[in-house]
# Entry
Amino acid sequence: MAELRNIVRVSKVTRTFQLGKTEVLALKGVDLSIAAGHYVSIMGPSGSGKSTLFNMIGGLDKPTSGKVFIDEVDIAQLDAYELAWLRCRKIGYIFQTFNIIQVMTALENVTLPMIFAGVNNDAAVEKGIQLLKLVGLGDRFRHKPSELSGGQQQRVAVARALANDPAIILADEPTGNLDLTTGEEIISLLKSLSRERNVTIISATHDIKMLNVSDQVVWIRDGRIERIEDRAELSISVGQIDTRT
Amino acid sequence: MKKNLPLSSSKKTPFKHSERLVVLPFKKSLEISWQSIRVRFFRSLITTMSLVLAVSFLSFVNVNNDIANGLLSTRDTVLRETLNRFGYDLGPEDTRAESSPKMRWIVILSLLVCVVGIVNAQLMAVTERFREIGTMKCLGALDSFILRLFLLEAGMQGLVGSAMGALSGGLFSLLAAVVRFGTVVFTSISWVEVAGSLLLATGVGCFLSLLGVLYPAVVAAKMLPIEAMRVEH
# Structure
């Protein structure tokens, strides 16, 4: 148990996009390993290839060359059914724009992935209520998204991401559309979930608040990994800033 | 270093393909599409309206024929005169009334226009729901789930819309006939034929509704889940 298992492994990945007649190289050979149970932030300016890398890890996009392994399975080898299964069972997504399905209640949103996974309705409802309680929305599960605030909608999204006990939660700028305090609440919720449930959380972000809770920060610039900082190094650098000021 | 561990670390047994299949039970898809119609009631109403009108026209024309045939079967020359006065082109020996080719063309055109209307409205609906579809796909929905949801929605809209259209067209036709010919209409008419006309109109309506949604539904189903991640609205 002492040795950390790599849940995500990215190996020599490049990705080119065809923009009109020119080819744009969004990722120029990225190698990255993410250990199970870690909270990893991917940082980088827009246009750095951050989102592209993020989509690769989520199985939403396939690399032009190189390989992406999720739990040591090469996602390029998976067919549409297996990919859907992977999205359903192994990965939970949290979006900047919440993406709660507007026509469904909070509870229905949370149960939907479980229905896809083949859980029967009663069990799904029971677990859904339990998850909504966990994220602090125990009394609001009959509400429609339009009756919930941004922070509450993001909590529903967190509960939905947890529905099938995924190994990985991918959060794309989860605090981007939230105010400071709500953003902090969501971050600490994610952090406590990653600790208690041993879920790997990978988030793409601009948000400096994220750095404090991250086990690892991956800085991306111009399609390459600029540096990877571990928690220990981070606190040292924060400490240095503290002593300077 | 090449290992092929099973995705689930707790279960060490090699997986069967069937275990790794996402599902959407039929009852649940029915529930989701019903809810989707209910919540977007006004939008569904507009999508359905052109179908209601076209189908009611079809059923109006067909029921008119049934009425004329009923009246002809009484072999009453006065009624035959009246029918001719109202636009039926009947020779003295004819025992069956048929709608004129011109009428048939108008009906076909109206049905065509209606299909185009449905395609248009459903394409709009797909665009509106891009994010919803993308999210569902991120949660593990297969192309076929999305296709099924759209087809079910269109099927329900088609069934209700064309039933309403068929009934209203038939009723209107009967009302107009009573005003023109009197209550003899009710005694002479073959109700079996009327029922047949209404059923035919409903069936045609359902078929057109499904035909109209086919292309938009395929567009929706083929959408990449990555679309849900895009920030712009």
Summary: The first helix of chain B runs from residue 26 to 39. Residues 1-16 of chain B have pLDDT under 50 and may be disordered. Chain B touches chain A at residues 3-5, 7, 9, 17, 20-25, 28, 32, 35-36, 39-40, 131-132, 134-143, 145, 224-226, 228-229, 231 (CB under 8 Å).
